[in-house]
Every structure is written in structure tokens, then in C-alpha cells.
Amino acid sequence: MIRSSDGVEIPTNLAEWCDPRRTALVVYDMQVGICRQVAGAATIVERTGTVLEAARVAGMRVAFTRHLSLPRKWTGATQLRTAMAWQRRDSPDTVEPWFPRDAEATRIVPELEPRDDEAVFDKLTMSAFDSTALGFALRDCGVRAVALAGIAMEVGIEPTVRQATDNGFVAVVIEDACGFGNREARDRSMATLRFLGEAVVTDVASFCSALAGAG
Fold first, then answer.
1. Which of 77, 110, 181, 214 lies at a 20 to 30 A Cα distance from 43?
2. Is 176 helix (H, G, I), strand (E, B) or coil?
3. 3-state secondary structure of 163
4. Which residues contact 174 (CB under 8 A, 6 or more apart)?
5. Which residue has better confidence, 14 or 109?
6. 140, exposed or middle or buried, with CB in 10 Å at 0-12, 13-18, 19+?
7. pTM given for the model
């Protein structure tokens, strides 16, 4: 830990960031319908489960995000354009709502079922900070950092990491617990995050070890 002349404390290593008092785990969009679309999702489910168990044992706050599809009357131009791109449709009239609130596809996979004391934030956007109460909840609990695992790096985790900084949080990216749909896009995302230098990049083993040490 280093301290500025004004008394601002800055953690300098993973163990310090993994203090459960200052960091929360965010499990990003590990939904049934998303995992079905991503090759290698079973591995990410397993690795995220390892991270989740370590966080629970350490008493770290845990949050889950879920991507939603709104009813058609509430599906505007931005949502339709996104859905058309994802579903490779030329007409908005052919778009199907993939993630209605109560659909099986929208559920968190059963291996990672949220507990009663864990938060679930529903969102319409890619970043977990945009249009959700995540930032408010973190600040309200005095949390300064978020550790991220889930799917998909190039779609929603990268914008969440970058917006974490804009909202005054440090993002800890558990790289081998972050799945992807496109390898090249994923590699560009990681290259960008490493270039910016604001995120802490680690792996499952190092995160769990640091969390155990912090506990």
C-alpha cells in the first residue's frame, strides 16, 4: 500500500485489492442462453465457480449481472439495432426477444446459482455500470474495486472494465475466467486494457491465492 502526501491510500498488489472490505466479485452474464452460444463456456462456468467459491469463503460481496430483452413496446431503436446485429437480421420485425425476464435463457446457469445474500443486476446495455444500480450499491457499501469473471470479454466485460475507471473503481480482470465468442476481438480487448494500464489483470489461481491471503 502506498500513500500520497494527502493521505490517499492506493493498494499496489493483488492481495491488497482482494481485501473483501474493498472489493466485490461481479459475475458477468453467466446466463443459460448466453452460455449455449459460446464455445468453451463449460470451462468458464467451472473457472467462475472456483472464483465464486473462493469469494464466498472469504466473505466477499458477490453480484451477478443478467442481460434482458424488454417487451416489444419498450424495444426502441438502439435495442433493435443491437438485436439485429447479434441475430444477423435485416429487418427489425424479424428480431426475436432472446432474454425475456422470466425465460429459461435469462437464468444464471444452475452451477452458479446466486445465493439469497448476493445481488443480481438486470441490464439492457453492455456495461454493467450503465443503467443499473451497481455503482450506487458498491459506493454505498464502501467498495472500491470489482473483480470480473463471466462472458463475454469482447462484448460486455471490456466496456464494464473501462467504465469502472470512469466511475471511480478499479477493475480486477480474472482473465482465464472470462469467456469470449470471437478470439480476435477478445485479444484486441485484452490488448486495449493492458495498454491503458488501469485494470489489474490476473488469473483464477492467483486471484484465489490472493483472496485466501487477504482473508
1. 214
2. strand
3. helix
4. 47, 51, 147, 148, 149, 202, 203, 204, 207
5. 109
6. exposed
7. 0.94
Distance CA 131, CA 185 (A): 25
Is 138 buried (19+), middle (13-18) or exposed (0-12) by CB count in 10 A? Answer: buried
Q: Any idea what DSSP says for residue 75? A: -
C-alpha separations of 199 from 17, 87, 89, 161 in Å: 11, 31, 35, 7
Quick check: bond before 119 cis, omega within 30? Answer: no
Distance CA 175, CA 186 (A): 10
What is the residue whose three cell numbers read 482473465?
175
Please say whether the dihedral angle defined by the alpha carbons of residues 19, 41, 68 and 162, taken in this order, is positive or negative.
positive
Tell me: pLDDT of 21 over 90.
yes
For residue range 71-114, what is the model confidence (pLDDT) as tens digits? Answer: 999 999 999 998 898 889 999 999 888 899 999 999 999 999 99
